[in-house]
Design goal:
The structure is a homotetramer.
Chain A (H helix, E strand, L loop, with lengths): L6 E9 L7 H13 L3 E5 L2 E6 L1 H15 L5 E11 L5 H13 L6
Helix pairs in contact in A: 1-2
Chain lengths: ~110, ~110, ~110, ~110
């Protein structure tokens, strides 16, 4: 059975014990997300991944396993938007706002 | 092998299609958390659960399965604090702040 | 005119450049919250403050000013629940869940 | 004195009492952000605004004033990344991850 990709998950995962420059660690998570085969978008504050509930949590868990291999303290912030019967919202949500606004926005 | 309970997860899970009073739906999640056997605390903005990475995500998934059975759109906010080799932080984190402060706080 | 205390704000404010033990810095924020005169509760993942929109943002700003005095990178996570015409929800939200559940929870 | 634009704020502001389709309300916030003159980017889960601490909170407050004019219950999720002496991170943070990764990502 094909799982519905009705979940958008945004997450950011940050080590607290590696000083103020953490992009080295963030890039390893991006590598995992990128190779997962799921649709995603990186923004300045997090990564939005589209998939089923199980798919997005599997990616999150893989990122945590990698980071906890050499980081002692990790802070993770996650936001999930589930909508029954809706797919492709990685693109359509922005379009819907622009349609209501009547003009394009910065994205 | 016993899994380390080195994760604190705070979450709130809210239906967007059920109007402004949602405690009926929140209470079903609390029932699941309460029966999971994990240590937890409910606060006015979410529930903090203590366990291993897999244990807390399992509880989160059970709550989502229940809520998605009759809610069409669900917003979930999650924060995870992982700390290698540390257990019992559900209680000790507050104590540590009070110790630094030199007096008790409202909790 | 008395401002309605119709906002619950939960926040956590963490320096990223001070290593994995940060309760020293968190306790300074708690000192500010505690002396603000607003009702609040500390939980293991954040602090919930009750007040008007302006009041809770004022406390948040004071905490940020203090922390940025000696921290170079700061991560802040904030969740706000606004409900028109409702006061005293710092206590009543938990009670409402327990009423639906028909039994007390850990809090 | 020119204020440093050393803050990135991502926020999402959602009414809970308007049913599951809320892009009409989100678009009004985007209109406010867009006209603020601050740099911003809309993503599928929120809007990232770059400015000083006071500037980004001013935009947030304007969005809340608009939404609370006709919504009874509003949930706001906010994440702030402050970094002393750093400007232009709306663009540079993604570039830094790509540099570490050695290839471009979806953004």
């Amino acid at each position: 059975m094909t799982q519905e990709k009705n979940v958008l998950m945004e997450f950011s995962m940050t080590p607290l014990d590696k000083g103020e420059s953490v992009s080295q660690y963030v890039s390893r998570s991006l590598d995992i997300v990128d190779k997962s085969g799921l649709e995603y978008r990186l923004n300045p504050m997090g990564t939005v991944v589209e998939g089923s509930w199980d798919q997005v949590l599997e990616v999150l868990t893989a990122c945590h396993e990698k980071m906890s291999s050499d980081c002692n303290r990790i802070s993770v912030s996650i936001k999930i938007d589930y909508r029954k019967g809706k797919n492709g919202r990685l693109l359509s949500k922005i379009g819907s706002v622009e349609k209501h606004l009547g003009r394009p926005v910065q994205k």
